[in-house]
Amino acid sequence: MAGLRFKRILLKLSGEMLAGNQGYGIQPAVVDGIASQIQTARDLGAQVAVVIGGGNIFRGLSDEAAGMERASADYMGMLATVLNALALQNRLEQRGVHTRVQSAIEMMELVEPYIRRKAIRHLEKGRVVIFAAGTGNPYFSTDTAAALRAMEVHAEVILKGTKVDGIYDKDPVKHPEALKYEELSYFQVLEKELKVMDATAITLCMDNKLPVIVFSARDPENIRRLLEGEPVGTIVH
Predict the structure, then answer these.
(1) pLDDT at 65 over 80
(2) Hey, which of 66, 144, 157, 175 has its CA 20 to 30 A from 4?
């Protein structure tokens, strides 16, 4: 553990990551791949917390939710994150990784309520903690929930797993000539309006000097490389 770049990490995953190529729902092979990466990080000695979005099931700001009251749509999105959290928990425990899901919205029959000190204790005992239901409040994204939980449990970094290998000046899928950044300041992300995390999340990280590394979660070796100190993705600090 002494040789790791980070001892305690918060992994932020979009719900879309769990959908794989099908674009919606939960693709078991993809979830298992993510569970494998988390298991590797845990086996290396890192303490791992996870926040997952719910966009593969329901996105409160999507066109499909247009006309729905924003608060109601956001609560539906929070429930979608609980489904994703349970799917990831199941895959991790099939691999023998002890896991706890903590939800910002109480549902005692399924998961633990979010209790900060209890979450820290789970991490100290080597359990993977998956935070579900965002912040428990509408109008806040799961990016903001990730920044908040990372600071509450004293994570050293947010690792944001995406479909691309870092932050670009424009969408690299649509623009092959897009320029990749190796590192950025928080202010540059806000100034350039780069769609890394929403402004609230970036501002929280900036105010608390919490670095964010954006990387491709599709490469099964990237989390290990990051923990071992290799340059991967784009760092915002």
Answers:
(1) no
(2) 144
